[in-house]
């Protein structure tokens, strides 16, 4: 089953009102474009600039984890990014089509252990309100679900 | 991303700008490690950094550790809001020497 075949059943599997869904090649060269899409979607959902910045960090790091650890030595796969919203949150579903990765292996490192690397998972958890690795639907490799409460800017709150 | 190196005596000022991400951080890493191996002081100007991810932060940490081993002074200066946010998330704002300006960094002042 390809990612295209997954799209229709996933509309029912994912919670919330659809905002935008796109797929990108799992490569470092595509991350800049993905960040721009995610930022615009977050702002369109009413997030403040600060909140949108944190959301971009989390989704970018999640995509990096997929590129580096899920696809790893077998590049060329896709990442499906599905963005939804509910009453007070913006929800991100990221699916890849690599071999399943044990979520227990994806842990943030101790920040007191100063060494290069190992920060991506910490950034995701620090920037989002909820992060879950869910059982992937048939045909997908891994499903990452993240939720962030929509924090509006002070100006928007007063308006 | 752009990476310019300005030599000021025995110091190097590495001026980073744009997005430092998985695509561009290998070049940043190489530039920083080269400077650290050649100079007694390295100041990284982050004023024009619009985004930095964990791979970019890893490059800074690696250069910092290499500098410490080689007794090179390594500091960050003029961190943009975007850079500062990520350094704070990693709690590295308490680890790196962070100066308000490049001139302060070169002088070693506050």
Question: What does this protein look like?
Answer:
The complex is a heterodimer of chains A (159) and B (110). In chain A, a hairpin with a 7-residue loop joins strand 4 (130-134) and strand 5. In chain A, helix 2 runs antiparallel to helix 3 (49-71) and helix 3 runs antiparallel to helix 4 (120-127). Helix content of chain A is 38%, strand content 24%. Chain A has helices at residues 3-13, 31-44, 49-71, 120-127, 154-158; strands at residues 17-25, 78-85, 89-96, 130-134, 142-149. Chain A is of the alpha+beta class. Chain B is α/β, with parallel strands linked by helices and 110 residues long. Chain B has a single domain, classed as STAS domain (Transcription Regulator spoIIAA, 2-Layer Sandwich), CATH 3.30.750. Chain B contains four helices and five strands. Chain B has helices at residues 25-38, 54-69, 81-89, 102-107; strands at 2-8, 11-20, 41-52, 73-77, 97-99. A five-stranded mixed β-sheet of chain B has the order 1-2-3-4-5. In chain B, helix 2 links the parallel strand 3 and strand 4 (73-77). Chain B is globular, with a radius of gyration of 12 Å. The mean pLDDT of chain B is 95. The chains are: A alpha+beta (159), B alpha/beta (110).
Topology of helices and strands:
The complex is a heterodimer of chains A (159) and B (110).
Chain A: H1 3-13, E1 17-25, H2 31-44, H3 49-71, E2 78-85, E3 89-96, H4 120-127, E4 130-134, E5 142-149, H5 154-158
Antiparallel strand pairs in A: 1-2, 2-3, 3-5, 4-5
Helix pairs in contact in A: 2-3, 3-4
Chain B: E1 2-8, E2 11-20, H1 25-38, E3 41-52, H2 54-69, E4 73-77, H3 81-89, E5 97-99, H4 102-107
Parallel strand pairs in B: 2-3, 3-4, 4-5
Antiparallel strand pairs in B: 1-2
Helix pairs in contact in B: 1-2
């Amino acid at each position: 089953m390809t990612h295209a075949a997954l799209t229709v059943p996933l509309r029912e599997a994912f919670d919330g009102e659809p905002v935008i869904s796109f797929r990108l090649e799992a490569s470092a060269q595509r991350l800049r474009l993905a960040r721009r899409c995610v930022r615009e979607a977050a702002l369109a959902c009413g997030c403040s600039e600060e909140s949108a910045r944190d959301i971009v960090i989390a989704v970018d790091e999640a995509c990096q984890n997929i590129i580096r650890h899920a696809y790893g030595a077998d590049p060329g796969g896709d990442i499906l990014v599905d963005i939804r919203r509910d009453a007070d949150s913006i929800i991100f579903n990221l699916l890849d089509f690599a071999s399943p990765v044990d979520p227990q292996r994806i842990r943030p490192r101790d920040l007191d252990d100063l060494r290069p690397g190992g920060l991506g998972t910490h950034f995701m958890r620090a920037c989002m309100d909820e992060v879950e690795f869910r059982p992937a639907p048939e045909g997908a490799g891994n499903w990452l679900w993240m939720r962030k409460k929509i924090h509006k800017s002070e100006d928007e709150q007063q308006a | 991303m752009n990476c310019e190196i300005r030599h000021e005596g025995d110091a190097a000022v590495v001026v980073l700008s744009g997005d430092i991400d998985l695509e561009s951080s290998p070049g940043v890493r190489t530039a920083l490690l080269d400077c650290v191996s050649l100079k007694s002081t390295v100041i990284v100007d982050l004023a024009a950094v619009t985004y930095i991810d964990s791979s970019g932060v890893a490059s800074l940490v690696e250069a910092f550790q290499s500098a410490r081993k080689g007794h090179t002074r390594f500091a960050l200066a003029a961190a943009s809001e975007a850079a500062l946010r990520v350094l704070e998330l990693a709690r590295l704002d308490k680890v790196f020497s962070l100066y308000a300006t490049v001139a302060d960094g070169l002088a070693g002042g506050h």
